[in-house]
Design goal:
With about 450 residues, this protein is mainly β. It has a domain of about 250 residues: Pectate Lyase C-like (3 Solenoid), CATH 2.160.20. The protein is about 15% helix and about 45% strand. It contains nine helices and 34 strands. The strands form three sheets. It has a 30-stranded mixed sheet that branches. A hairpin with a 2-residue loop joins strand 8 and strand 9. The chain is globular, with a radius of gyration of 23 Å.
Length: about 450
């Protein structure tokens, strides 16, 4: 049996007022040295950044809360990757950095108490936007993440854990492998709606399992990332061999997102049994920019259930240009180092992300406004997408542009009473032959549209 350690034996006080950073870190160091378990008596433990060490189990039982300090100086600046580039940034509240065999478990809470950081971000952004610096605001308004796994392996997180009110991203898994996240709840829309409070970001990492996550955030809920622009292309590290299953997304920008940091590429991603509810505008989202580059292939998404979302599938290769495309106003000369990184030029041919071999199957979507919003580039078409057993009820079909070799099998699109030839024609841009069955059925004004891709040679 692993040795047991108690945080209070090292001077930690769970009164919600005492700053416990040094006491808890001392307890972590002692428990890790013995390969032991660190537990806490019920209470609220105020703390700055903590650094877990190899071999430790951090046990946060029901009634235990680690609450983040609202003083940014309690989060030391360290080298990391943030929003796709490598730079110095405040440490997270809880950090697993260059460690192995770490467990964080229990039904307790890790609470970022992040509203003060959300407010500081909005103040900076309001000052930056009139100057054409929207792209820099996320990097300059330094906000601590809640939990960071960085350059680490064999890390396990979950067993009923509640993560809430993160100052920035909630759980960031970067340059890591063999990470398991199971049975966690994320709630970031308390005290307001925190900007960029992503749920789980898997960033240039491999052999990751995400299971039984219940997520309500104000940005991407589960997001696959791999670096931004010139810096991401320099690192060139993909996210690969990822399993995501049995998750529910109650609020966020999208249910499952790929990008916009696509530079290192994605491959062998398998997501299944994902439910996305009405407070989420997009079910499945692929996003990139013409300076990102990278690739995505062997992506398999199945058994999704979308309820009352605005768009079932959105693919945009020119996402949010004010944020994605960094350009300097002429009068700026004395630049922070990360601004130079963000504005490094990427050749056009290298900047186009390439997506291919994506299979989406057994997707059920009801109450949808638009089925498809798909836009890419003629020089980098979306290739070899396969759709099988889709069942979508939507107000309108939408559009699909710059698609090549897309195939639909045993799929159904229901436009309800609005079905007519004109309504079916709202879905534009598929290669010739894709919608032959749709058009003939729609001309007869039926409400259930089934379509099957024809051979396009």
């Amino acid at each position: 049996m692993n040795p047991q350690f108690r945080a209070e034996d090292f001077g930690a006080v769970g009164d919600g007022l005492t700053l416990n950073t040094a006491a808890i870190q001392h307890a972590i160091d002692a428990a890790a040295l013995a390969g032991g378990v660190l537990a806490f008596s019920p209470g609220v433990y105020l703390t700055g950044s903590l650094f877990l060490k190899s071999g430790i189990t951090l046990q946060l039982d029901l009634g235990v809360t680690l609450r983040g300090s609202q003083d940014l100086t309690d989060y030391p600046l360290l080298p990391t990757r943030i929003a796709g580039i490598e730079m110095v940034w405040p440490a997270a509240l809880l950090n697993v950095c260059e460690q192995a065999d770490v467990r964080i478990q229990g039904a307790g809470q890790i609470d970022g108490d992040g509203k003060i950081f959300w407010d500081s971000y909005w103040t900076l952004r309001r000052a930056y936007e009139p100057r054409g610096l929207r792209w820099a605001s996320d990097y300059d308004a330094q906000r601590p993440r809640l939990l960071q796994v960085f350059k680490s392996t064999r890390v396990s997180i979950g067993d009923g854990l509640l993560l809430r009110r993160s100052g920035f991203w909630t759980l960031h898994i970067c340059y890591s492998s063999e990470v398991t996240v199971s049975r966690i709840t994320i709630r970031n829309n308390e005290d307001g709606r925190g900007p960029s409070t992503d749920g789980i970001d898997i960033d240039s990492s491999s052999r990751v399992l995400i299971a039984h996550a219940d997520i309500a955030v104000n940005d991407d809920a589960i997001c696959i990332k791999a670096g931004r622009d010139a810096d991401g292309l320099r690192v060139a590290r993909p996210t690969e061999d990822v399993l995501i299953r049995d998750c529910i997304v109650r609020a966020g920008a999208a249910g499952l997102t790929f990008g916009s940091e696509t530079s290192g590429g994605f491959r062998n991603i398998d997501a299944s049994r994902i439910t996305v509810l009405s407070a989420v505008p997009v079910g499945i989202l692929f996003k990139s920019a013409p300076t990102r580059g990278g690739f995505g292939h062997d992506l398999r998404l199945q058994d999704f259930r979308l309820v009352d979302v605005a768009v079932a599938l959105r693919i945009t290769m020119n996402w949010n240009p004010a944020y994605s495309l960094a350009s300097l106003p002429a009068e700026l000369v004395d630049l922070p180092p990360h601004w130079r990184v963000l504005t490094s030029k990427v050749p056009p041919a290298q900047g186009m992300a390439r997506l291919r071999d994506v299979h989406i199957s057994r997707l059920q979507a009801s109450g949808v406004q638009t089925a498809f919003e798909v836009d890419a580039y003629p020089d980098a078409p979306l290739q070899g997408f396969r759709f099988s057993e889709l069942d979508i009820s939507a107000q309108q079909g939408g559009h699909i542009r710059d698609a090549q070799d897309w195939k639909f099998e045993h799929c159904r699109l229901d436009l309800g009473e609005r079905v007519s030839l004109a309504a079916a024609d709202e879905v534009q841009g598929l290669p010739e032959g894709s919608w032959q069955v749709v058009s003939s059925l729609a001309a007869r004004d039926v409400s259930a549209l089934s379509f099957e891709e024809q051979d396009k040679q």
